[in-house]
């Protein structure tokens, strides 16, 4: 055991003065009031914990790019353009179905006119048909003149077979953006599909134009039925594959040079 009071005072180690690194200048933090405010000009969106539904949406979009997508599903990414869609929706706005209040009033007026012995008001005007079962029946019976299918129906299996049915029955169809916009036409939140059965005489020429457009872009477009989608790799994978291809090309060049 060491004797008490016999320990010598140890010499304090000499600290070396560290030189400031010009590449990484010191940025002392302030822990006072307001010191936890986010620095201006820094994008921290990568570090945000996004809600689960946002993460699922983004992961699904990436998966659709990476995986090979069959033609039956890939055709739903080929919706009509913005200007064409605006023209179609302008026509469909004229044939929005009655609201519940308007229908009730029409039935009441018809009943009152019949009771008074007067001529009953006109029948239900031409209007959009909606609902997947209803539109399917109209297509099967070849009563639909034009069918509009939303591109973002989830699950996609609900409408996956409908383009094939429209082609078989020779009913013109268009794939449009999006289900919420179709739902607005028929007083619903969303609608997977809507159909026109007939239009007024003044709109027949415009309907014929849209039917020709549907036949050209969807019904008779053989490439749409054959073309697969997806198969797009990420930036890192593309860079890795390019590097590998360059290395293989160099090896081939060396072999060719050695054979001479």
Describe the structure in your own words.
The chain is of the alpha+beta class and 260 residues long. 45% of the residues lie in helices and 7% in strands. Strand 3 (146-150), helix 6 and strand 4 (173-176) form a beta-alpha-beta unit. It starts with 51 loop residues before the first helix and ends with a helix.
Quickly list its features.
alpha+beta, four-stranded mixed β-sheet, 10 helices
Strand fraction equals: 5-15%
Report the radius of gyration as a whole number of Å.
Answer: 34 Å
Number of helices: 10
**Fraction of residues in helices?**
40-55%
The H/E string reads HEHHHEHEHEHEHHEH
Would you tell me the overall average pLDDT?
A: 87
Oligomer: single chain
Number of β-strand runs: 6
For the largest beta sheet, what order do the strands appear in spatially? 2-5-3-4
Assign an overall shape: flat
Cα(first) to Cα(last) distance is: 84 Å
Helix-strand makeup class:
alpha+beta
Major beta sheet summary: 4 strands, mixed
Low-confidence stretches: none
Structure, briefly:
The protein is α+β, with helices and mostly antiparallel strands and 260 residues long.
List the helices and strands and how they pair.
Layout: H1 52-66, E1 68-69, H2 71-74, H3 82-93, H4 100-115, E2 129-130, H5 132-140, E3 146-150, H6 162-169, E4 173-176, H7 179-185, E5 193-196, H8 204-219, H9 222-226, E6 229-230, H10 235-259
Parallel strand pairs: 3-4
Antiparallel strand pairs: 1-6, 2-5, 3-5
